[in-house]
Design a protein that fits this description.
By secondary structure, the protein is mostly helical. The protein has helices at residues 3-19, 32-41, 47-63, 67-88, 95-112, 118-138, 146-174, 179-198.
């Protein structure tokens, strides 16, 4: 990984904490570490969340430039808003379908190397961030503080974005002329996994 990309990955992880608003204050609780730990683990226990978050980082890595931090930051900030909706009990239709589609579409975007403009990429990831954030917010345990839990799942999301950025940098650095092929394979496999998630096979 280049120094620039490493610094960007660290910045994304830090930004995730800074951008987190007061998520789910309607769920007071005790034990900030417990709340943070449970929130951090929540995105890491679902294949759909893991794949989508990593694909956001890889998509940003494929685009390059300011997308390295703008695209993940867009996902994190809008996901936080989705978390507020979920914690508030506001109904969001087709949440599970939206999450599954995020894996398919983001994997496809990485595979195809669409060359999206940065605003378009930000809008794309932001659309799916609502569904992921809603799922996190709706599942905040009653026994933990919502803010601590929210900071935890935002930190985990930023961490997964950083992994995606690192993978993209590693492919660009090591695959040479085959880099596009590797991106196609990784993105395509992710899209197939997303289809399986939608159909209930995974």
């Amino acid at each position: 990984m280049s120094r620039h990309t490493l610094k960007t990955a660290i910045a994304v992880a830090t930004a995730g904490l800074v951008l987190m608003p007061g998520v789910a204050l309607a769920h007071p609780g005790h034990g900030s570490f417990t709340g943070f730990g449970q929130g951090f683990m929540h995105p890491l226990t679902g294949l759909d969340h893991i794949l989508a978050m990593v694909m956001v980082g890889m998509l940003a890595g494929r685009i390059g430039g300011r997308a390295l931090w703008l695209v993940p930051a867009s996902f994190v900030s809008i996901m936080a808003l989705g978390g507020v909706l979920g914690a508030s009990g506001i109904w969001l239709p087709m949440m599970e379908l939206g999450i599954g589609l995020s894996v398919v579409v983001l994997g496809g975007a990485v595979a195809l190397g669409l060359g999206l403009a940065i605003p378009a990429a930000m809008a794309l990831v932001g659309l799916f961030a609502i569904f992921h954030g809603y799922a996190h917010g709706a599942e905040i345990p009653e026994t933990v503080a919502g803010l601590d839990y929210g900071v935890g799942f935002v930190a985990a999301t930023a961490f997964l974005h950083a992994i995606g950025l690192g993978l993209a940098a590693a492919i660009d650095r090591n695959a040479g002329k085959r880099a596009n092929l590797v991106f196609r394979v990784v993105g395509s496999l992710t899209a197939v996994a997303g289809t399986g998630i939608i159909l209930g096979a995974m």
